[in-house]
Amino acid sequence: MAKHEALDAVFVALADPTRRAVIRRLGEGPASVSELARPFAIALPSFLKHVRMLESSGLVRTAKSGRVRMCILDRERLAVVDGWLDEQRRVWEGRTDRLSAFVTDPQEQS
Amino acid sequence: MAKHEALDAVFVALADPTRRAVIRRLGEGPASVSELARPFAIALPSFLKHVRMLESSGLVRTAKSGRVRMCILDRERLAVVDGWLDEQRRVWEGRTDRLSAFVTDPQEQS
Prior knowledge:
2 copies of one chain form a homodimer. Chain A is α+β, with helices and mostly antiparallel strands. Chain A has one domain: Orthogonal Bundle (Arc Repressor Mutant, subunit A). Chain A contains 5 helices and 3 strands; from the N terminus they run H-H-E-H-H-E-E-H. Chain A is elongated, with a radius of gyration of 20 Å. The N and C termini of chain A lie far apart (about 40 Å). The model of chain A has no long low-confidence stretch (mean pLDDT about 90). Chains A, B: This is Helix-turn-helix transcriptional regulator. Chains A, B: It comes from Microbacterium helvum. Chains A, B: Pfam families: HTH_20 (PF12840).
């Protein structure tokens, strides 16, 4: 997955309160799909769509253990969001640096 | 806008490479809609849809100045993403703390 596709998929996955709640729950440790579904008043097939979307974004990995599907959070994948935010901050800081250079020595700017 | 609605709107807005590029460009300073549109090989009406989505998420504010619509980035709104990520980290750290408490003194856990 290219970097921008990874970001697209991660941001789409995070744009839903149910999926964010699943990520939060998985931050406490692995859980089965049925444990994850329990707090939500939605039908299992709809819940499974959320799990599949989280899986295809790479935020969640799942594995069958007997008849139970276990889910774990992939924090590395969530780190792409931190990476993108850091990139924006570098842009802002570059701007601030240019502004202070201008204030300190306006002659240097042509 | 409730907190989870703000997050939904911000994450949807960020789930597109054109919109992320606009945010990055606005990190360098305010720009008009036509300046923002220039690097993209898409029709202006399509580009305006992106701008409107950024505006409705609160990430971008726009104002008409004569015949020109100027756009500025609202970094405060982007900070909701940092807030959400911090919340997840606190969940992970809470988990790590519980694990170390267990390792240090398993008798304390019932």
